[in-house]
Design a protein that fits this description.
mainly alpha; 4 helices
Protein backbone atom coordinates (compact mmCIF):
# COMPACT_ATOMS: atom_id res chain seq x y z
CA UNK A 1 0.00 0.00 0.00
CA UNK A 2 2.85 2.42 0.82
CA UNK A 3 4.35 1.80 -2.63
CA UNK A 4 1.11 2.91 -4.28
CA UNK A 5 0.94 6.07 -2.15
CA UNK A 6 4.53 6.94 -3.02
CA UNK A 7 3.72 6.24 -6.68
CA UNK A 8 0.84 8.70 -6.56
CA UNK A 9 3.18 11.23 -4.91
CA UNK A 10 5.71 10.74 -7.73
CA UNK A 11 3.02 11.44 -10.32
CA UNK A 12 1.82 14.48 -8.34
CA UNK A 13 5.36 15.86 -8.06
CA UNK A 14 5.91 15.28 -11.79
CA UNK A 15 2.74 17.16 -12.74
CA UNK A 16 3.51 20.04 -10.38
CA UNK A 17 7.10 20.27 -11.60
CA UNK A 18 5.98 20.23 -15.24
CA UNK A 19 3.48 23.03 -14.60
CA UNK A 20 6.17 24.99 -12.74
CA UNK A 21 8.91 24.35 -15.29
CA UNK A 22 6.88 25.08 -18.40
CA UNK A 23 4.33 27.68 -17.28
CA UNK A 24 5.85 28.95 -13.98
CA UNK A 25 2.41 29.06 -12.35
CA UNK A 26 3.12 27.23 -9.07
CA UNK A 27 4.98 28.91 -6.22
CA UNK A 28 8.74 28.35 -5.78
CA UNK A 29 8.29 27.41 -2.12
CA UNK A 30 5.82 24.62 -2.92
CA UNK A 31 8.14 23.18 -5.57
CA UNK A 32 11.05 23.41 -3.13
CA UNK A 33 8.98 21.48 -0.56
CA UNK A 34 8.17 18.79 -3.14
CA UNK A 35 11.84 18.59 -4.13
CA UNK A 36 12.88 18.17 -0.51
CA UNK A 37 10.22 15.48 -0.04
CA UNK A 38 11.58 13.61 -3.06
CA UNK A 39 15.13 14.01 -1.75
CA UNK A 40 14.22 12.57 1.65
CA UNK A 41 12.35 9.70 0.01
CA UNK A 42 15.34 8.97 -2.20
CA UNK A 43 17.74 9.07 0.75
CA UNK A 44 15.57 6.75 2.82
CA UNK A 45 15.30 4.17 0.06
CA UNK A 46 18.96 4.51 -1.00
CA UNK A 47 19.96 2.22 1.85
CA UNK A 48 19.54 -0.68 -0.60
CA UNK A 49 21.67 1.20 -3.17
CA UNK A 50 18.89 1.08 -5.72
CA UNK A 51 19.32 2.89 -9.05
CA UNK A 52 15.81 4.37 -8.84
CA UNK A 53 16.67 5.92 -5.47
CA UNK A 54 19.79 7.48 -6.95
CA UNK A 55 17.70 8.83 -9.84
CA UNK A 56 15.18 10.14 -7.28
CA UNK A 57 18.00 12.04 -5.57
CA UNK A 58 19.19 13.46 -8.92
CA UNK A 59 15.62 14.41 -9.85
CA UNK A 60 15.18 16.11 -6.49
CA UNK A 61 18.38 18.05 -7.13
CA UNK A 62 17.07 19.26 -10.48
CA UNK A 63 13.74 20.22 -8.91
CA UNK A 64 15.44 22.11 -6.08
CA UNK A 65 17.81 23.86 -8.51
CA UNK A 66 14.87 24.88 -10.67
CA UNK A 67 13.60 27.09 -7.86
CA UNK A 68 16.85 29.07 -8.04
CA UNK A 69 17.45 29.17 -11.79
CA UNK A 70 15.58 28.56 -15.02
CA UNK A 71 15.95 24.95 -16.17
CA UNK A 72 16.01 24.05 -19.86
CA UNK A 73 12.72 22.53 -20.99
CA UNK A 74 14.30 19.23 -21.97
CA UNK A 75 15.51 18.72 -18.38
CA UNK A 76 12.04 19.47 -17.06
CA UNK A 77 10.55 17.01 -19.53
CA UNK A 78 13.10 14.27 -18.73
CA UNK A 79 12.59 14.55 -14.96
CA UNK A 80 8.83 14.70 -15.40
CA UNK A 81 8.73 11.63 -17.65
CA UNK A 82 10.97 9.69 -15.25
CA UNK A 83 8.75 10.48 -12.27
CA UNK A 84 5.54 9.71 -14.15
CA UNK A 85 6.78 6.35 -15.40
CA UNK A 86 8.13 5.46 -11.95
CA UNK A 87 4.80 6.40 -10.41
CA UNK A 88 2.87 4.30 -12.94
CA UNK A 89 5.13 1.30 -12.34
CA UNK A 90 4.61 1.73 -8.59
CA UNK A 91 0.86 1.74 -9.07
CA UNK A 92 0.98 -1.37 -11.25
CA UNK A 93 3.15 -3.41 -8.87
Amino acid sequence: MIIKILGVMDIFIAICFWIFGIFNIISDKFILFLGLFLLVKGLIFSIKINITSVLDILSAGVIILSTMMIMPRFMVIIVTLFLVQKGIFSLLS
